[in-house]
Each structure stands twice: as structure tokens, then as C-alpha cells.
Design a protein that fits this description.
Layout lengths: L1 H9 L5 H5 L3 H10 L3 H12 L3 E2 L6 H15 L4 H21 L7 H5 E2 L5 H11 L14 H14 L26 H19 L8 H9 L3 H9 L6 H21 L7 H10 L3 E10 L8 E9 L30 E2 L44 H4 L11 H17 L5 H15 L7 H15 L6 H14 L20 H5 L10 H14 L3 H11 L2 H10 L3 H14 L4 H11 L2 H11 L2 H12 L11 H14 L4 H13 L3 H14 L4 H13 L3 H13 L6 H13 L3 H19 L6 H12 L10 H13 L8 H13 L3 H16 L8 H21 L3 E2 L2 E5 L4 H16 L7 H12 L1
Parallel strand pairs: 1-2
Antiparallel strand pairs: 3-4, 3-5, 6-7
Helix pairs in contact: 1-3, 1-10, 3-6, 4-6, 5-8, 5-9, 6-9, 6-10, 9-10, 10-11, 10-12, 11-13, 12-13, 13-14, 13-16, 16-17, 17-18, 18-19, 19-21, 21-22, 22-23, 23-24, 23-25, 24-25, 25-26, 26-27, 27-28, 28-29, 29-30, 29-31, 30-31, 31-32, 32-33, 33-34, 34-36, 35-36, 35-37, 37-38, 38-39, 39-40, ...
Length: 904
């Protein structure tokens, strides 16, 4: 029963089981689900009747140690009670820093015994204890004691290695291992620990340290969900079990996003979509966006339908988010779509990649994309074709979360400010905002926030986007002097439960981060003063300095950082940023010595890789690799650092190091074509051609930018391994990439000659052709002739293939073109080599006339290839004699030409 209660709390699912059980634990679970976490804390501490005495504490380490001892003494033995206490602490921290409304309970005084005037000092110690590798936690966060105690208690409950002050023990980190069949409560405790670690990461500027690795280890295996489901009572329904798996996959995606391994999200996105039977597709429709439009313009829309629905929401509930209609004369609040497919099919918009319409497997839709797309109306699934695009049904909250997570994955894996990507994201967000019925507060406000981010990138909507961002920041109760939407005292309701319900499935966005994003937008629009004012109010001194540095006012940036280091001499990040501005290695070394701040080592590596000319420092690859190695030992999940590490190792010939580095790169992002290509380069230099070939196969599969170097390497390695189908594919792709700039120079002559040799060595059949024959013929006989301008060798290759195809008339035509190419070379009049080449081409053409002229022609029996071939041969020779007479008389080439004439 205890496991069932905890499972309901884990997935935020109210149930009659909570009403049927009369126990303090059931009461705790009810409080947590109702958003009253402070009642759980008060009840447990009142029963305990103990507080932590801080009279002898003088620094952060002592405070953490004392707190840990207290928790070990009073909470270690009672796992269930301890878990409720840890969850309540974490919930209070989340509510006060992420969702609101603020809890009016002094939790610090409930936990610790100290003088009122000393509380700020001890809270500062708690915030200092949350520092990770030199990155301090946000200094104005509320109730740091809740997060610290939750992290410590969950470490104790899971019997895990502590991550506090972990910069000294990164080499011997023991990652948690979730094994199949482990205790259900232990699995739940580990799950809550992963949530707490992600909350910890969200209060520092960048993910770093061991926390990302531990969180990833916990949430990377489905066994954690299996262990909970298998331990549930047999009478528990399948729907509840399915919800546990759904929540797991959603949080698996969130974890990948939080630790910058977003390229690992797609498998989980696909699985959770199938698990909830969620149907949605991106397609096109015409829409009117202003009152003055008489006809709609093409745009993108998401058609979506949920297979399950949440419990009905009371529209009169004052805790529901409010909908405001702008009713602008210029911009409609909601676009009005025409019926999908009302326009002619051949005019329907086609975006992005082409999908084979003949594919029966996906019916024109690639389900394994982040955003499944129907490029034509007939490809839309039947279940979605009847939806009214202007009144789509309400989606379940879990399906809304799926869409929001796809927004984050697309944004983190796509180029910034790409117009098409932003249109896709707008379509997703609009589907959530404009659906019928009321929505969960957290999901609706997050959707509004994402829409505001997108709107601030457009000139026509930037003002509305900024106003919406401002109002959302105000909604969380930040200390802002003015509000654009007035709020009365009676307006503040106890709406913590719906705000907390889905907070763990979405990327954490603390309230100060929202305000900082608003400052970034002001900065991007050139409103420097407003941006700096926000940073000053938030005490984000490093961001304020970066703001000034971005506009070239480095002196002001240095003043801010210098003052910050005077007040906080242990801020390793501030030292590193100051080092970046001054390009001073001593400041980076100082940053590393203080807190092992990994960006300081990365900056040192870049400095010694390309030293400034005025520094007098020489490039030193060994020093660069040493700094990068130090950085990666502290934070091994950084793709960019591994990539730089591999490139440097490749450049200085340390091939084993390069192979290891790029192997780590592709394990973090297996869609990165350049990482696969560089890994293959390291294998090629080690003469490991099969390994290189496998890597290049992956590289070309993900090469969306069509990098000719990757394809050229693929062609060369395939050539050496006699993989002729791949050689042909690579050769064709190279021509496609380079033809516009290089023309016939895009053709690799030796490779094409080999392909032609292989082709004509096989038996020709008009009806039965394998892949190699069919594609080689298309490439040599169709693509190459459209490229050739001056290369007679290419025409001769085409001639051989045409003769093999039993098309002697086409072969003779190629020989004629080869001769004309050499004849029209301007160098024929001045260079003997060019003259001799023309003689060779003439001889080949005469031989072709002689051997092909009397063969059966293009029109079958009774026709010949060239009826007057002798006349043409004589005319060719005569014209060449006239051209060379007076210039090349008496040369070897002239004598050979005379001999050709006499033999004819």
C-alpha cells in the first residue's frame, strides 16, 4: 500500500485509494497531491520535535555536514516517512522558485535553531553549498534549505555517493545502477533524486559536474519504471501502469534536454507517442491573420487528436488561466483557417524533405521524425482528416507535454532564427493555445511563453511578445515595481496543485530565468538600459557584464566583474568571464584553482591553440590537449569540448586520442555528420578501412548540409574496399553538390573510368538490370553529357558505355563530340601537345567511323549508323590538315596525320 501511495504521488494522480486509507502516510500523500507540501513538513517536524542547532557553524561545508548528520540520525531508518519529507521539501522549493504562489511558512525556522538576525548568513552558506564546479547557484533563490535537505535525504535513502563538494572526487564517481527487479520504493526514491538533481542544475548557469551524469544514469533505463510497475498490487489497473511509463519517457526526454544531450530524445518521443496513441501531423492550410485579408495565405498547422482525455476542468475555477482577446484591428488573436485541402492539390505547400508518396509503410508520413509531416492533404491520417482546423478538440495534458517537449527538441537541434523552423514551432504552440476548453495553468503559461519568444523575433509581433513575457514574469510574483495587468489582493488563490502537477515533465524554468530571458530580448532589440536594469535587480552580475561586452563596452564589463569579485572572491565563473574579456590566462587559471570551472579550461585550450600575436606565446598542442582533458574529466557530457579535443588530436597526429574523442562525440549525438567523418579520418590514418567505411556510411546518412568533403572521403574509402554501389552513389552526389560551381571539374575521372570498366564487363540486358547497371547508365549516359564542355576523355567514356548498350549511333555521336572538344581547344594553334591530342582524337574518330558506320542504325533493319562515313572521315582529316598546315608541317603529329589519310 505504501508503494501505491508513493506511485500516485510520483505521477501526480489522485485516486480513491487515498480516501480509503486512514493513515498519516495517506494524509501526507493527499497533502502533496493537493499542493500543501508545507503541511507535510510541519507535521513531520512537529512529531520529531527536533531542530538543527547552528551555533557552531562557520561555513557552508560545516552546515551541510551538520544537516547530513541530523538526517542520518532521525530519518534513515524510516524510508517511507523520509521519502515523504524529501518530496515535500522539494515541492516547496519548486513552488517558491518556479511555479508560485509563495508559501507563507518559515521553513528555515522549522528546521534550524538560530537567531533571527543570523538567518541570512546561514542561507548564504546553503546557497554556497549548491555551487557546482565553480558555478555558484543563483544568490537570490528562495528556501535553499529545502533543496539542500531534499538532495541530502535522497542521497541517504538511495545509499548514494554524495555530490556535495564533489570537485575533489570526480575520478571515483560511482553512478547509480537501476537493475531489473529492484525494490519499488528504492526505484521511486531514485526517480525523485533525479528530479531534485535537475532542479539543482537549473539554479546554476550551465549544466556541469557529476549531477548530469547521475541524473542521466537514473533516467536512462526503463527498468526504473518496470521495477515500480512490477511491485504494484495486482488489482492496479493497466491505465495507471501505462501512466507511469508515459511519465518516465517524458522525464527521460526532459533529462536529455537539461544536460544538453537532446539528440537522444527522438526514441523516447516516438515511444511515448505510441504509448498514449497520440495522433498529430504537421500540414499546410490557408489562413487569414488580419481583418483586412480577403483570401487566406499558406501557412502551417498541427492537426492533433488525443485518444484519452483528462478529467473535466471546471471552467468557473478561479485558478484556471485567463484568456484575453486582443481584438486588434491589425492582428487577429487567432488565425482563421480554411478547410484543409480546399485548394488544388498541386498548390498545397510542400515543406522540408521529400517523402516518397508511394510508400505504403508510412502512407507518405515519416512517423520517426520529431515532427511527423503530411506534405499533401491525402497523406493526412484518416482520423485527423475530419478535424475542423478552427475548433480542434482539447488534447490531454500528457499529449500537450509531448508537443511542448518537441518544441524544445526542435529548437535545440535546429539553426537559430531559421524562418521555417520558427513557423513549425508557431504551429505547435498555436495548437495548444487555441484548443477548445480550459487548460492546465503550467502548460498554458509555458505555451504562452514559447509563443512570446517566437513573436519577439518578428517585427510585426515583437511588441506583443514583449508585453506577454512581462505579464508572465509578473504572474510568478517577482518584485517588479509596476504591473501591466492590475492584480487585486483577492486574486491570489491557492493554485499550487495544478501548477505543480506537470512541472517535473517540462524543462525547469526558474522565475529569475524568465526575467533574464526578458532581459536578453531587450538586449537583442538594443534596449540596453532595460536589460541591465533587470540584471542588476536579479543580481546577475556576470550576465550584466556579458551584456556590456556584447555591445563593445568592455571597460564597463570589467568594472562590474571586478566589483563582483571584490564582493564574492570565490566566484570562479566571474574570473573566467573576466579572463575572456581580457584574454588573460592567469584569470582562467585562477578560476580553475578556485572551483574547477570547466569553461576556464576550455578558454585556456583555445588560447594556446591560437595564441594572440601580441602574446608572444607559441602554439602548443600538448598544452591544449592537457587543458581539454582536464575539462572533460570534470564534465564528460560536453559534445563541443570532445569535438575540439578530437580535432586537435587529429591535427597533431595523436590518432588514438582522436578516435576516442570522436567516438564520445557520436555517442552523445549520433546524427552529427562531421563527428562521424572525423572519426573515419582517424581510422583511415590508422589503416582501419572497414571501421572508416562504417563511420562514413553514418556520416553521409546525416549529411543534411551536403558536405562534399564527407562524400569524397566516402567515395575514396568505398573505392579502396571495392564497394562499387557506394562509390557510384558518392560520385553522383559529388557531381550534384559541385556541378554549379565546377561543372565537369566535379567529376572524378579515374573513378568514372573504373565504374565504366566494371559496367561494360557485365552482360547487357534491356529488361533485366541490377541497381549498379541501372544507376551507372543513368549517371554516365544522362548526367555526364549535361556537364561536359572541354573534356574529351569523358565523351570517350560515354561512347564506350553507349556501344555496350548496343547503341552504336549514340557511341559515334560521342566520338564526334570528343573530337570537336579537342579541335576547338585554343592551344591547338600554339602547343604541340594539344596538336598531338587532336591527332589522337581524329584517329579515334576515323576508327569509329570505320567500325560503326555500317552497323544497324537507330531505326532498325534497313538503316545504318552513318551511310556516308567515308566522306565524313575524309572531310575530318582534310579539315585538320588545313588547320595545321603552315604551323605543324614536319612534326611527328603531321606525319601521323598523313599516314591516317593514306590508310583510309
Amino acid at each position: 500500500m505504501e508503494l501505491l501511495l508513493h506511485a500516485h504521488v510520483l505521477v501526480s494522480s489522485n485516486s480513491d485509494v487515498l480516501k480509503d486509507v486512514e493513515s498519516s502516510n495517506a494524509q501526507y500523500a493527499t497533502h502533496l497531491l493537493n499542493g500543501n507540501s508545507e503541511l507535510v513538513i510541519q507535521s513531520i517536524l512537529n512529531q520529531l520535535n527536533q531542530r538543527i542547532d547552528l551555533s557552531n557553524v562557520s561555513n557552508a561545508d560545516e552546515m551541510v555536514s551538520l544537516t547530513r548528520s541530523f538526517l542520518m540520525e532521525y530519518f534513515k531508518e524510516n524510508t517511507t516517512l523520509s521519502l515523504y519529507f524529501a518530496i515535500a521539501l522539494l515541492q516547496c522549493f519548486i513552488q517558491n522558485n518556479y511555479t508560485g504562489p509563495f508559501i507563507d511558512v518559515d521553513i528555515f525556522r522549522l528546521l534550524y535553531s538560530t537567531q533571527q538576525e543570523e538567518i541570512s548568513i546561514y542561507q548564504k552558506y546553503l546557497i554556497q553549498s549548491l555551487t557546482i564546479l565553480g558555478q555558484p547557484a543563483y544568490e537570490l533563490l528562495s528556501n535553499p534549505e529545502c533543496l539542500v535537505l531534499a538532495l541530502l535525504l535522497l542521497e541517504i535513502l538511495t545509499d548514494s555517493q554524495t555530490l556535495f563538494n564533489d570537485q575533489n572526487n570526480t575520478d571515483d564517481l560511482i553512478l547509480p545502477e537501476i537493475v531489473p527487479g529492484c525494490d519499488g520504493l528504492l526505484a521511486i526514491a531514485n526517480w525523485w533524486r533525479a528530479r531534485a538533481l535537475l532542479a539543482h542544475l537549473s539554479v546554476i548557469p550551465e549544466p556541469t559536474g557529476n549531477q548530469p551524469s547521475v541524473a542521466a544514469a537514473i533516467m536512462s533505463t526503463i527498468d526504473i519504471a518496470h521495477s515500480i510497475v512490477n511491485a504494484l498490487p495486482v488489482e492496479v489497473g493497466e491505465d495507471f501502469k501505462k501512466k507511469i511509463y508515459t511519465i518516465y519517457y517524458l522525464e527521460n526526454i526532459k533529462t536529455s534536454l537539461a544536460i544538453n544531450t537532446e539528440h537522444l530524445c527522438l526514441p523516447s518521443l516516438t515511444k511515448v507517442k505510441k504509448l498514449t496513441n497520440f495522433e498529430f501531423v504537421l500540414t499546410g492550410a490557408r489562413a487569414k491573420r488580419t481583418k483586412f485579408q480577403e483570401t487566406g495565405h499558406s501557412g502551417l498547422i498541427i492537426l492533433a487528436h488525443s485518444s484519452t482525455q483528462d478529467e473535466s476542468i471546471d471552467d468557473s475555477d478561479p485558478n484556471n488561466p485567463e484568456n484575453f482577446t486582443l481584438e486588434s484591428d491589425l492582428l487577429l488573436e487567432k488565425p482563421i483557417f480554411d478547410s484543409i485541402g480546399s485548394e488544388p492539390l498541386d498548390e498545397q505547400i510542400i515543406k522540408r524533405q521529400k517523402i516518397d508518396p508511394e510508400s505504403e509503410e508510412n502512407n507518405g508520413i515519416d512517423e520517426d521524425r520529431i515532427l511527423p509531416m503530411a506534405i499533401r492533404q491525402e497523406y493526412i491520417p484518416k482520423s485527423l482528416q475530419d478535424l475542423n482546423p478552427n475548433e480542434q478538440p482539447t488534447l490531454s495534458n500528457l499529449d500537450v507535454i509531448q508537443l511542448l517537449l518537441r518544441v524544445y527538441v526542435i529548437r535545440q537541434t535546429s539553426p537559430a532564427r531559421d524562418p521555417l523552423v520558427e513557423e513549425e514551432l508557431s504551429a505547435i504552440v498555436s495548437r495548444i493555445i487555441y484548443q477548445k476548453g480550459q487548460a492546465n495553468w503550467t502548460l498554458f503559461s509555458r505555451s504562452l511563453w514559447e509563443r512570446s519568444i517566437l513573436e519577439t523575433n518578428k517585427a510585426k509581433t515583437v511588441e506583443r511578445g514583449l508585453l506577454q513575457m512581462q505579464s508572465l514574469v509578473e504572474e510568478l510574483g517577482l518584485m517588479i515595481q509596476t504591473r501591466m495587468i492590475p492584480q487585486s489582493q483577492d486574486e491570489v488563490n491557492n493554485c499550487s496543485a495544478p501548477r505543480l502537477k506537470y512541472i517535473y515533465q517540462l524543462p525547469f524554468m526558474p522565475r529569475w530565468e524568465l526575467d533574464a530571458r526578458l532581459a536578453e530580448k531587450y538586449m537583442s532589440l538594443g534596449v540596453l538600459r532595460s536589460a541591465v536594469e533587470i540584471y542588476d535587480r536579479l543580481h546577475m552580475w556576470c550576465e550584466a557584464a556579458l551584456c556590456y561586452a556584447a555591445v563593445g563596452d568592455e571597460k564597463q564589463a570589467e568594472e562590474i566583474l571586478t566589483k563582483r569579485l571584490t564582493d564574492a572572491p570565490d566566484d570562479a565563473r566571474a574570473y573566467s568571464i573576466l579572463g575572456d574579456i581580457r584574454q588573460d590566462p592567469s584569470l582562467w587559471e585562477k578560476s580553475w584553482s578556485i572551483g574547477k570551472y570547466v569553461n576556464a579550461k576550455n578558454s585556456l585550450a583555445r588560447y594556446y591553440y591560437r595564441p594572440p600575436k601580441e602574446s608572444g606565446v607559441a602554439q602548443d598542442f600538448d598544452v591544449v590537449l592537457g587543458h581539454l582533458n582536464d575539462s572533460l574529466r570534470q564534465y564528460p557530457l560536453s559534445f563541443d569540448t570532445w569535438y575540439f579535443y578530437g580535432c586537435v588530436a587529429l591535427e597533431c597526429g595523436k590518432l588514438n586520442v582522436a578516435s576516442e574523442a570522436f567516438s564520445r562525440c557520436v555517442s552523445l549525438d549520433d546524427t552529427h555528420s562531421m563527428a562521424w567523418s572525423n572519426l573515419s579520418a582517424s581510422y583511415i590514418q590508422q589503416d582501419k578501412l572497414k571501421e572508416a567505411y562504417s563511420c562514413l556510411k553514418r556520416a553521409v546518412g546525416f549529411d543534411s548540409q551536403k558536405n562534399w568533403r564527407i562524400w569524397e572521403n566516402f567515395m575514396i574509402v568505398s573505392f579502396r574496399l571495392n564497394e562499387w554501389n557506394d562509390v557510384l552513389t558518392a560520385c553522383k552526389q559529388l557531381v550534384s553538390i559541385k556541378r554549379d560551381k565546377q561543372g565537369e571539374g566535379s567529376v572524378d575521372m579515374p573513378v568514372v573510368e573504373k565504374l565504366a570498366e566494371l559496367l561494360i564487363s557485365t552482360d547487357y540486358s534491356e529488361d533485366k538490370q541490377d541497381y549498379f547497371q541501372r544507376n551507372s547508365i543513368e549517371f554516365i549516359c544522362v548526367t555526364l553529357p549535361s556537364l561536359i564542355t572541354t573534356n574529351d576523355r569523358l565523351w570517350k567514356i560515354v561512347a564506350k558505355v553507349e556501344l555496350w548498350r548496343k547503341r552504336p549511333w549514340a557511341s559515334l555521336d560521342c566520338h564526334e563530340k570528343a573530337y570537336r572538344v579537342t579541335l576547338h581547344n585554343p592551344a591547338v594553334d600554339t602547343e604541340e601537345i594539344a596538336w598531338n591530342n587532336t591527332i589522337d582524337a581524329c584517329e579515334d574518330l576515323v576508327a569509329a567511323y570505320e567500325s560503326l558506320g555500317e552497323r544497324e542504325g537507330k531505326y532498325g533493319a534497313g538503316s545504318v549508323v552513318c551511310k556516308d562515313w567515308k566522306y565524313k572521315a575524309r572531310s575530318t582529316i582534310k579539315a585538320l590538315i588545313s588547320k595545321g598546315k603552315g604551323r605543324w608541317d614536319g612534326t611527328d603529329g603531321w606525319e601521323r596525320l598523313m599516314e591516317i589519310r593514306s590508310q583510309l
